[in-house]
Amino acid sequence: MENKTKVVLGVIGADCHAVGNKILNYAIGAAGFEVINLGVLVPQADFVSAAIETDAQAILVASLYGHGEIDCRGLRERCREAGIENILIYVGGNLVVGKTDFGEVEKKFLDMGYDRVYAPGTLPDVVIKNLQADLEKRGL
Amino acid sequence: MENKTKVVLGVIGADCHAVGNKILNYAIGAAGFEVINLGVLVPQADFVSAAIETDAQAILVASLYGHGEIDCRGLRERCREAGIENILIYVGGNLVVGKTDFGEVEKKFLDMGYDRVYAPGTLPDVVIKNLQADLEKRGL
Amino acid sequence: MELKNKKWTREQFDTIRAEVLTHWATGKDVDMEEAVKFHETIPAKRHFAKRLIKAKKNGETLTQPRAGVALINEHIELLNFLRNEGEADLLPTTIDSYTRQNQYKEAQNGIEESMKAGRSLLNGFPAVNHGVEGVRRVVESVDAPLQVRHGTPDARLLTEITLAAGYTSYEGGGISYNIPYAKSVSLERTIYDWQYCDRLVGIYAEQGVEINREPFGPLTGTLVPPSVSHSVAVIEGLLAAEQGVKNLTLGYGQCGNLIQDVAAIKALEQLAEEYFAKHGYNDCTLTSVFHQWMGGFPQDEAKAFGVISWGAAAAVLSQATKVIVKTPHEALGIPTKEANAQGLRTTKQMINMLKDQPYPMTKEVLDEVEIIKAESRCILDKVFELGQGDYAVGAVRAFEAGVLDVPFAPSKYSLNKILPARDNNGAVRLFDVGNLPFTPELVAFHKDKIDQRAKVEGRSPSFQMVIDDIYAISKGNLVGRPR
Amino acid sequence: MELKNKKWTREQFDTIRAEVLTHWATGKDVDMEEAVKFHETIPAKRHFAKRLIKAKKNGETLTQPRAGVALINEHIELLNFLRNEGEADLLPTTIDSYTRQNQYKEAQNGIEESMKAGRSLLNGFPAVNHGVEGVRRVVESVDAPLQVRHGTPDARLLTEITLAAGYTSYEGGGISYNIPYAKSVSLERTIYDWQYCDRLVGIYAEQGVEINREPFGPLTGTLVPPSVSHSVAVIEGLLAAEQGVKNLTLGYGQCGNLIQDVAAIKALEQLAEEYFAKHGYNDCTLTSVFHQWMGGFPQDEAKAFGVISWGAAAAVLSQATKVIVKTPHEALGIPTKEANAQGLRTTKQMINMLKDQPYPMTKEVLDEVEIIKAESRCILDKVFELGQGDYAVGAVRAFEAGVLDVPFAPSKYSLNKILPARDNNGAVRLFDVGNLPFTPELVAFHKDKIDQRAKVEGRSPSFQMVIDDIYAISKGNLVGRPR
Ligand code: B12
Ligand code: B12
Questions:
Q1: Each residue of C118-131: pLDDT tens digit?
Q2: Chains A and B touch, contact meaning at least 3 pairs of CB atoms under 8 angstroms apart
Q3: Of D113, D408, D474, which is closest to B22 when you measure between CB atoms?
Q4: How far is CA D211 from the centre of its chain?
Q5: What is the reported pLDDT for C395?
Q6: In chain D, is it the N or the C terminus that has fewer CB atoms within a 10 Å radius of its CB?
Q7: β-bridge pairing C322-324 and C62-64
Q8: What is the ipTM of this complex?
Q9: How far apart are the first and last CA of chain C?
Q10: How many Å apart are CA D316 and CA D60, to the nearest integer?
Q11: Residue of C nearest to D475 (CA)
Q12: Are strands C428-432 and C419-422 parallel, antiparallel or unpaired?
């Protein structure tokens, strides 16, 4: 148990979409990570504190309901302030309101400081592969 | 019978779409016109000769199958050559190949010398109203 | 606060009301007397409850979209577009998610950001912030029956404001707007707060103002077995009736197997009649709503049109009173008004082509009706027993015990022990019945159905099967077969 | 020319063949020996007949679009697009209308105008003008089973060229490609000319090359009662089998009432088995094709998607072997490749969602099957009698007598005495049975059905009712109720 890499998972803001979260939790766990799943309706602050408490290597933020643009701003800064500036942060789901060209959306969230931005309906395997690769790069 | 206004009706070229033709035939006849219905697969020449033989006041050309652009060119000239230069000529149906902006199509056929051009799915009542109005203008 | 399924006294209501109306500045403008007068001026064609009664009488299935944007004028424009271009029979006002969580400051911020951005940054219409006057403008600018649709655990202020503004229908319930929408709000709390909403509707009714109420049928929208959502629907219906609600629409979300879907609507209507009669609520008009597939959609619009059409077919063949319509943008984002109108027109076409062909009540359908009713009775009667004759108390205890259990629910007050999966014909069954109080026969029925499928697929039932089913429709299938 | 339903001798065939191949310059390049060698190299997955047999075995319903443009490269691109983006299982090559009328000069002109215009001015692919080599390029550039679809009274040269080029399926028939597509070509002529086409397929078969043949089921596509099109389908099937065809697909165009549509496919399959056995054609493989609604479509694309979806549902619920797919552009013009692919994907989604839910064979369905079979037997047996045991001669006489009669047909060889109209459930019945040789019971059945509807609508049956039904689906309904 101990030596498993830890990742924090949660659905941010006032968002209650739980199905994807449960599947990601199951799949990422099954892939050998220790998932700290905060579930739905998670404030930014909780992602940061959970990451610090558990010494996690990555934060996986989900936003399905359309307010992602508002809810996700400033998470990177919070991490910086809390001293985990370099933690991996992924974000995915239906990030903005409306059917939008993903290119724009991706850019917007990369600029906010997210390491990877996922298009709607991304399958868990993709995330897991990326996680393993990114952590390896960091020698973990 | 005699003193009814006569109109020639037909589906031009290699076109076999008969349903609309039968309905137009029925409706225009019911509206008090004498319809000379040439049916489907009608060459340009037949429209002209039928109009002359019956001393018709209007020619109603239908083209559904997409070749209207090719089939309808030159009908006005033929009428001119045959000495019925001023006869009313309407055209309707699905005149060109593909879903096309009707404005363009209308212009194209007006330029070919048609008096009225009808969009796909036009109902008989519309045609009948127009016929009555146009013939009245001509004092018929 | 002591939860009881008992009509509130006016005192109890008024004390709490005084406090509720202070939750946000706009609360003070609520004037029930003025509201009652306004409601009396609403013509029948714009009156939700009356329109539903007429539809039920004529055997119509009415269409209704979901729609809501941040700003008033844009919202009015949106609704009129759906009325005119979408041929919608009934119109919604979908509330944004901040308001749903009573985060009125965030909603205010969303309004301002939307003004700046020139597009809606909110996923719905923040009615509380717009206040009675603003919402009234919507009511006066739209020529169709209007309903509030949301997902709000504590909807008391929202109810006060929208009803005062002239809405004639209101969605939600203490269970259906908690378990799928909240994480750590107790059921006691939400059922109690929704008694307030129902009581308010009852008080309007006592003054001759009929307002339609609709518990949210589909719950998590994802492989919810009919008997589970039916039990919740009937309980919320009974709780509403006790508070004086006289016009109720009970709902169900499409599962995808036509026989099961047709049977589900029949069973829902019959169960409701049965339990309302049993408990003496005989002056309450009941209608039904069918939700087109509420789970994950295909991203491709052409495929989405297929899913929408199949939902429309099931709705009209089951003769539901109304159908809630999805759009070709479903998988990707809040639809444009054009995409929303497209879903409505596809649905209208299906309804009009199918309305003259009743679905034969075959043995398969009737058997399915009996199964759903038998399961629902097991649950409902156990809830009643746990509550010692009180459905409100019983519901709370039932969720603790897993007697009521909603798959994939985010709320920690749902045990999440049951696991649904499709059988070999695509009907939603239970791969794990958890603590549902089913008879051994019913448990065996589900086991057989799942085993039958597993056998065909040459694999043993597993959570992977559940996951495959969750993705199936979005990947173009009904049953999530192994690749 | 003396018409007999008798397998042609090789001499008879060869004399005519020598002449046929001179109808257009490209005829001289037809080389059957080379063709047979080429056919032997076609892999199963690209082989139409083999793919159909596999589908029938697995209970699949395959999707197939209509598509054809003037120029070779554009046509190849179109087909591959429909394969990749439309997920089509089977591919067509729809032939243009000049070629259909053997107006190869006009077709040539269309090819040149299309090159100039940079877009196709032809409504299909002029295969004769492109010749064996050009058509072969298509066959070699597309990775799916390919069929020729047209509407050609005299298709002899077209058949020679496309089969020599490697097509493994061929649509048409002496009745179904005359009555709906021609005006004054005698049936004797077209049946005779189509015996040539069938004989050619038979000669390929004798050399071990299996080619699928498909009579055109929907005829005029407009309110054609099942028994009328079934009779034509069975007759053309029998005529083809006599000439040595071994793989046949019989078709039917959707009427719109699900019970009637499901019953129609069942009845068609059963009738074919029955008559093929009766006349000793036991080595011929039979499959079925369901055509999505072939009459007037709604112009609005969202509504068209509804019509397409309903056609897809009926196709898979009736377990037809394949379905011919319409597009959201249907009412307005030849579809773009994108619109064509959309119709295919909508259909795929429906098929995949419904394939696991067999439609219950209810009493209503079984009764309808019996009606359709009884009506068809009346017609078929009368045709046989009129022909003194010869279906070819019988067909000609039957059309003269109105024993066979196709509504709204342009051909003067169809009496056009029958008038179809929908009953109160939307099933297509006969408002005037004309001279169809129905039993008094069957005549009464139709009368009752129409009267029943007329009563509901408070009007007496009339031609206006027929007109209302013709427009109904394009106006968003199934039954053309009075406004
Ligand atoms: C089911 C559903 C619901 C259910 C949720 C039940 C529950 N508690 O879980 C109910 C009915 C309650 C619901 C409510 C609402 N919903 Co909803 N819902 C859906 C729906 C249909 C499916 C979601 C789902 O479960 N998919 C299946 C799972 C497995 O996939 P997933 O959620 O997409 O997650 C996967 C991927 O996205 C990815 N992923 C997700 N997050 C992350 C994060 C990372 C880091 C990574 C790497 C990957 C990743 O991995 C997951 C597993 O593959 C979607 C539309 C759709 N997708 O078809 C709308 C949708 C998400 N909902 C939407 C909205 C707006 C709402 C509401 C606000 C109501 C409304 N206004 O209509 C409320 C929200 C209330 C709230 N406070 O949040 C919108 C969002 C619009 C937008 N973004 O522009 C959608 C897109 C529908 C739409 N087009 O309008 N909804
Ligand atoms: C039924 C039908 C057929 C039947 C016809 C049976 C018959 N003999 O009548 C069959 C199956 C045989 C058929 C064959 C073909 N068809 Co067709 N057919 C249709 C369909 C679905 C309905 C036509 C119909 O009957 N409508 C009902 C009647 C009442 O309406 P209407 O015909 O539009 O006529 C009304 C109005 O247009 C108007 N009107 C018509 N003409 C005129 C003229 C005047 C002067 C006025 C004022 C008004 C007017 O008044 C009529 C009464 O309201 C249409 C698409 C659609 N509309 O949904 C395609 C369609 C017309 N067919 C089409 C094609 C291409 C063909 C084929 C070439 C096959 C192919 N490549 O797919 C062959 C043609 C062979 C030939 N030589 O002509 C295309 C034409 C494409 C284009 N223009 O770009 C269409 C539009 C379908 C499509 N989108 O691809 N077809």
A1: 999 899 999 999 99
A2: no
A3: D408
A4: 16
A5: 98
A6: C
A7: parallel
A8: 0.96
A9: 53
A10: 8
A11: C349
A12: antiparallel
Contact indicator for A97, C123 with CB cutoff of 8 Å: yes
Six token digits for residue D301: 């694309």
Measured in angstroms, the CA of C272 and the nearest CA of chain A are apart by 29
Distance A41 CA to ligand 1 centre (A): 13
C164 in Cβ contact with C30 (< 8 Å) = yes
Chains C and B touch (3+ CB pairs under 8 A): no
Residue C66: partners with Cβ closer than 8 Å, 6 or more residues away: C92, C94, C149, C324, C325, C340
| Phi, psi of D99, deg, nearest 5 | -55, -40
Please check whether residue C144 is in contact with residue C83, taking contact to mean a CB–CB distance below 8 angstroms: yes
Compute the count of residue pairs across chains B and D with CB atoms less than 8 Å apart.
91
Distance between CA atoms of B84 and D330, rounded to whole angstroms?
37
Reading the block at residue C469, the tokens are 């089913």
Longest dimension (CA), chain C: 66
Averaged pLDDT, D254-270 = 98
Low-confidence ranges of chain C (pLDDT < 70): none
Query: Is A41's Cβ below 8 Å from some Cβ in C?
Result: yes
Partner chains of D (3+ C-beta pairs under 8 Å): B, C
**Phi first, then psi: what are they for B88, rounded to 5°?**
-70, 135
Concatenated DSSP letters of A7-36: EEEEEBTT----HHHHHHHHHHHHTT-EEE
Give the CA distances from residue C126 to residues B123, C69, C99, C292, in Å, rounded to whole numbers and listed in that order: 46, 8, 6, 25
CA B134 to ligand 1 center in whole angstroms: 59
Query: D362: which chain C residues are within 8 Å (Cβ-Cβ)?
Result: 360, 362
Q: For ligand 2, is residue B62 a contact (CB within 6 Å)? A: yes
pLDDT recorded at residue B2: 55
pLDDT tens digits along D356-407: 998 999 999 999 999 999 999 999 999 999 999 999 999 999 999 999 999 9
Please, where are the H alpha helices in C279-390?
301-317, 337-354, 363-386
Q: At what angle do helices B19-30 and D463-472 cross, to 10 degrees?
A: 140
Go through D113-136 and write b for each residue having 16 or more CB atoms within 10 A of its CB, e for each that does not: bbeeeeebbbbbbbbbbbbbebbb
Are residues B121 and D299, on separate chains, in Cβ contact within 8 Å? yes
pLDDT 10s digits, D20-66: 999 999 999 999 999 999 999 999 999 999 999 999 999 999 999 99
Do C and A count as touching (3 or more CB pairs closer than 8 A)? yes
b/e string for D91-104 if b means 16 or more Cβ within 10 A? Answer: bbbbbbbbbbbbbb
Residue A1 has pLDDT above 50, yes or no: no
Interface touch B41/D329, C-beta < 8 Å: no
A28: contact with C, CB 8 A cutoff: no
Between the CA of B72 and the centroid of ligand 2 the distance, in Å, is 16
Give percent of chain D with pLDDT exceeding 70: 100
To probe the interface with C, which of D60, D85, D346, D478 has the most C CB atoms within 10 Å? Answer: D346
Do residue D408 and residue B18 have CB atoms under 8 angstroms apart?
Answer: yes
Please tell me what DSSP assigns to residue C44.
G
Q: What are phi and psi of D91, to 5 degrees?
A: -120, 150
| CA gap A61, A46 in Å, rounded | 11
pLDDT given at position B1 = 44
DSSP tag of A61:
E
d(CA B58, CA B114): 11
pLDDT at A2: 55
B17 is catalytic: yes
Tell the residue nearest (CA) to atom 33 of ligand 1.
A121
Is the separation of the CB atoms in D371 and D266 below 8 Å? no
Ligand whose nearest atom lies closest to the CA of A19: 1
B101 in catalytic set = no
Report chain C residues whose CB lies below 8 A from the CB of D302: 305, 341-346, 349
Q: Is A96 on the interface with C (CB under 8 A)?
A: yes
